[in-house]
Amino acid sequence: GCKLPPKEKKEMQALPAEKISAYLAAAEDHGVLPMFYLELTTGIRRGELVALLWDDLDPENQTLSISKSAGRINGEVKVTQPKTTNSVQMIYLPQKTIALLIQEHAKHLSKPIMFPSLVTGRLYGPDCIGLLHKSLLKKAGITENFPFHGLRHTFCTNLANAGMNPKALQYIMGHSNITMTLNYYAHATFASARAEMERLAA
């Protein structure tokens, strides 16, 4: 008998630039703008995002230390540390991101968690962030099925399109393999070539 061809892996979509403002406006209305703005300006994984503490932030040097991740184990949210010090990332934050985080900190100075849950005041579960993201999409009128991980993809795609050095982007994204990073450049180059061909045809 004949074998069916393997299913094509669905390409992760980046949030279109014209919809980012509506998405961030929805996040502001919901009271979670600093968290989602940070995501769109760093591309960190959602487990890393919810595990952040204020001690991870160095406002003076505009850096953020990514040193742990949260996940749900047997129904409980647990924070895990990296196996090696090489897993710890120090990333640069734009000044606007720093300003939003400082505003956020002022709301709950006594809590060590950077983004405590609006409901429980404790650590968010990464799955809760996914549900919150879906609410923001709906509020922003974005009907496409756009997973939270797509925000990471959006950040990486924007930097690749801007021509960032691939090795620098690999470091920022925490990719263990440069091939993964280069895929974003291949996509950016293809999109650019397609636009040029359409312009030429016109």
Core attributes:
202 residues; mainly alpha; three-stranded antiparallel beta sheet; two-stranded antiparallel sheet; 50% helix
Description:
With 202 residues, the chain is mainly alpha-helical. Helices cover 50% and strands 10% of the residues. The chain contains eight helices and five strands. It has helices at residues 17-30, 33-42, 46-50, 95-107, 126-139, 149-161, 166-173, 178-201, and strands spanning 57-58, 63-66, 69-73, 76-80, 89-92. The strands form two sheets. A three-stranded antiparallel beta sheet has the order 1-2-5, with no helix packed on it. A two-stranded antiparallel ribbon has the order 3-4. Helix 6 (149-161) crosses helix 8 (178-201). It is globular, with a radius of gyration of 19 Å. The termini are far apart. The model has no long low-confidence stretch (mean pLDDT 79).
How far apart lie the N and C ends? 47 Å
Helix fraction by DSSP (H/I, runs of at least 4): 40-55%
Strand order of the largest sheet: 1-2-5
Shape: globular
Q: How would you characterize the largest beta sheet?
A: 3 strands, antiparallel
Query: Average pLDDT across residues?
Result: 79
List low-confidence stretches.
none
- Protein structure class: mainly alpha
The value of Rg in angstroms is 19 Å
Tally of individual helices: 8
Record field, number of beta strands: 5
Q: What fraction of residues sit in β-strands? A: 5-15%
Order of helices and strands: HHHEEEEEHHHHH
